[in-house]
Write a structure and sequence with these properties.
The complex is a heterodimer of chains A (114) and B (891). Helices cover 54% and strands 14% of the residues of chain A. Chain A has 114 residues and is an alpha+beta fold. In chain B, strand 3 and strand 4 form a beta hairpin. The longest helix of chain B has 37 residues. The chains are: A alpha+beta (114), B alpha+beta (891).
Amino acid sequence: MSTKSDLPQGTLDLLILQVVALGSVHGYAIAQRLQQVSRDVVQVPQGSLYPALHRLENRGLLAADWNETETGREAKFYRLTRKGRAQLETEAASWKRLTEAVGLILRMSPEGAE
Amino acid sequence: MNWWQRLWRRKQMDQQLEKELQFHLEQHANELIARGHDPEEARRLARLSLGGPEQVKEQCRDARGTRWLEDLFQDIRYALRMLAKNPGFAVVALLTLALGTGVTAVMFTVVNGVLLKPLPYHEPHRLVALQEKTESANQFGNLWAFAYPNFLDCRHDSQSLTMAAWRNSGGIISASGAAEYVDAAETSSELFSVLGVPLLKGRAFLPEEDRLGAAPVAIISYELWQRRFAGDPAAVGSTLVFDGTARTIVGIAPSGFRINEDQMDVFTPLGQNPSPALQRRDRHPGVGVLARLRPGVALSQAQTELAVIGRRLAQQFPQSNAGRGFVADPLRPDVGDVGSTLWLLLGAVSLVLLIACVNVASLLLARAVSRERELAMRVALGASRGRLVRQCLTESAVLALAGGALGIFLAQLGVRPFVMLWPGSLPRAEEIHLDWHVILFAIAISLVCGVLFGLAPAVRAPARDVDHTLRSGGRTMAGSSRRLHSAFVVSEVALAVVLLVSAGMLGRTLLQLSALNPGLDFHNVLISRLALSPATLSNVPQIRPAWNDVLDRARHAPGVRSAAIVDTVPLREGNNQVAFWTTPSVVSPDTAPLALATSVTPDYLDVMGIPLLKGRFFDDHDRVGNELVVVIDDVLAKQAFGANDPIGQRLWIPAISSPFSSGSDGTDPVRVVGVVGHVRHWGLAGDDQAQVRAQFYYSFAQVPDALLARWSELMSIAVRTNAPPLSIVQSLRQELRGASNDQALYGVETMEGLVSASLARQRFLLLLFGVFAGLALLLACIGIYGVLAYLTGQRVPEIGVRIALGARPIDVMWMVLRQGLGMILAGIAVGALAAFAAGRVLQHLVEGMRPAGISTFVVAIPLLIAAALFASFVPARRASRVDPMTALRQE
């Protein structure tokens, strides 16, 4: 379990938006994809996935339709709205800036030399 | 989907949420099965990794953002259930609140209609009233009615205002039907257009009709149209004989049309008035002036412009206009001094409302304390403090709004009787309706009350010490709650004391005022205005014989003992204040003392029963040509002559001896021939504080011929009867119809009625304060009973122990009563202080009010203590009968 990290505050929304941006997808698949892509490092607490989805839908960043899956089951599929795409871009950009800055700071060696 | 759609489709959304989570669980389980898990085990693991489905659902619902509304509905449903479960509490609380908001809403409806509503004209905020203003003030102030020529000049010169003038008048309608006296107004042609009131039928006066010699026309009121023409459209264009002139009716005013709160039946063009006095700039009869600001003009611009016009006229006509300007003020409803009475009553009812609030608060608090266990349970199950406070406030708000709705219903029933009960006629009574202003007001005060009385239980709600509360079974009594309960009782008693003492003060004042001697014998006296035939009035030599004929006929009417004519009647509206001097060297007319002048015929003293103190009253020799004489009252005698004998002394009264000379030059003296008793002209209540009390009488027969026509319009006839005065009205009316059947009695009153009416306001206030005080007392008693019953109920185990240890029933009773008495006495102490303050307000606002004497308190306070002790007695007795065994087993 030590290889798995808790998600920093607020990043779950960003990750969901990114996954949904790739195409219309249902809740279970989102959870699966997050886990696979992050090579099981990011453990999405499934209990907080659905409230997050509903919150994003409520804010108009996601839209949802009921459609059939490949196996013929009815499921709720989420897709990105135009507003959601804009939000994803700004949040992704700011996340990138932040991680780069944090990376720079971490790359400093205590003695000032690598 | 917006929030209310989400709210309404809550059920559907919940189903979808269920389905979505179900899908997730199945997918997860299928995957686990595919990896080789046992199906049962797979489903368990799936559920585990999702977390508790109910919690997830709850969080998803929170994410929808309609949570607070759902909670609100839930709380309201819960509140209604609680009320239904406890009907006794619900009925008492609702009735208390309904009474409180009901009486307050009635008072507010009246205040709103009379004082707050704008005037019923088009864009009333653009209307202004104009007056003349002199630089220096005299006894009458420095604001004056307009001179008609000044109005014409202002109207002509002003760019910022459209102006109209009017004058109250009145006259006899003689053609078509019985002769009838009606109120009327002379108006300039623009009046209706300035007010923005369209005529119902026909047209307004044309500018060319608003001048001397134009064709005689008239506009009539809707009411007159209905009364005399039965609403016949052909009335427009027909002829109306008004005051002896045949006029063509050109228009009909809309129903209920008023100028300055006066309703009139006939309108005639002001410019057609032939009186030469109207054309003067000094010593003129005066006209009222209204104006509307032209679009885009501010009031200050209009005022500046009027000041410029005023200066120009002052240069052009220095004799009359020097130091005289014109001022414009926003037009306001003329409601006289009703305002102070209404605010006073609104203040009194808000005290009743406060008591009602306190009452419900203490009931709710008692309930909250007994529900402490339930609330503690909720906290234990995870309710937040804010959530509990919200629930408590929702409950009290539901109660308050239900009470408020009932109150609005009560107000709807109560407004009309209240207006009917008002002494005399309430100004703008036609504006008094229960409208949305009132409903908003009632809802607002209900909500404020709801928060006020819900706050106490709500603040207690958090149950800091859940564990303790749950274990103790909610039966222990927190000290703070006991203190709060006591505070409620204290404030209720204090408020009741204020109302009781106020009612007592009013009662005492009324008793004392009723016992005052009005200065005349008011039994069996009939007073009526009398309009002589218009033909007589226009022919001056006929006027004196006509009045003599009236007096002769009146004296011979059945039931009449004596008759007189008089201009201003005591205690009736209207007076004539004139300046007098005791020396011929007349100083500045602006500083002379004033006296009330009354012109009468010789029998007046007998008719009114006024005592003659010295000298003589008038006789038939006191007529034009003989020496001018006056009879003064003892107030004037003392004021003018001190201890000297006034008989034979001289007074200089320019208004009587030389009414046509301007200023004070060369006035002849008048001789004092008699002294009579003072009459309370300003009413039983108001006379002592009146500015001008001195009175003198002069003979109607000495009024100069030139004034006779004008004076005759003002005269009333007064008769002393042998029978009940109203029983002779019909025969008197017949007797005085005149040769051509166009003389009319109007404004018939009895002296007794006038005396009674002069105390009507005090009597009315006493009645209402009495009702309010009774209500307050009742509510306070219910409150005291409730609180003591509750507090005693909480102490049952303790009382059981005391009895088991040997306390006698009387000791237990005394213990409870003592607790009640402590609160009552504290309330009385606070209330007595507040009552002194309230007494000051009453003295300020009510004529003739006597200060709150000790006797008022002596009556009010024992009454309150007795009632309060009675209320405490029931719980005390119940406590004394506690069975120690049962009580102890409860613990």
